[in-house]
Specification:
190 residues, mainly alpha, 10 helices, globular, potassium transport, ion channel, Integral membrane protein, membrane
Length: 190
């Protein structure tokens, strides 16, 4: 398979995920600021999930620059990642409907954790296929710290959902600045 075909497919799936999330947003139930303010939880959940999908899209772009040959393992690992990311709209909507319920908040974290682990699987598949990714990612502190923070947030979901949400936002903040390790070391400028 051609690398650009894999990228185009992934870009399309991620665009559909964002489209599904935005379609979940509804107009406020009135024409007042109070009606709009009542939707702040919905909007913040959408923003957080949008940022997560955007982070994966941005870093996926950089990651694909290290691929010299697309193998079956890379294709399956990429599909594995896209599967977990495709669940983001569903868990975002469920957590929005029940913002103070532990289970939807925890399941949101489970999907984020599974996506992070799928990302690591994709990285390993690319490393196995050859190239310089291993040297480029180095110790990958953020990649190792994120799953631990997700596990912490999942546990916090059953104590204080707002604290779990804060940890999910913290992880997004860690990754909001695109991962420049690959770009810097590969000489990629776009």
């Amino acid at each position: 398979m051609n690398k650009s075909r894999l990228e185009a497919f992934s870009d399309g799936v991620l665009a559909i995920i964002i489209t599904i999330m935005v379609l979940e947003l509804k107009a406020p139930p009135g024409d007042t600021l109070e009606a709009l303010a009542a939707m702040r939880s919905t909007f913040l959940g959408y923003v957080l999930s949008f940022v997560y999908v955007g982070i994966y899209w941005n870093n996926h772009h950089h990651l694909m620059h290290t691929v010299h040959h697309v193998t079956g393992g890379i294709m399956w690992a990429n599909l594995h990642l896209l599967f977990w990311l495709s669940l983001v709209p569903a868990v975002t909507a469920w957590a929005d409907h029940y913002p103070s319920s532990p289970l939807p908040t925890a399941l949101y974290g489970v999907v984020l954790l599974a996506s992070a682990l799928a990302w690591l699987v994709l990285q390993r598949a690319i490393i196995r296929a050859g190239g310089s990714l291993r040297r480029m990612i180095g110790a990958d502190l953020k990649g190792k710290l994120s799953p631990l923070l997700y596990l912490t947030a999942i546990a916090l979901s059953f104590v204080r959902t707002w604290a779990a949400d804060a940890v999910y936002a913290l992880v997004a903040a860690l990754w909001f600045i695109p991962d420049r390790r690959i770009e810097r070391r590969s000489g990629e400028g776009d």
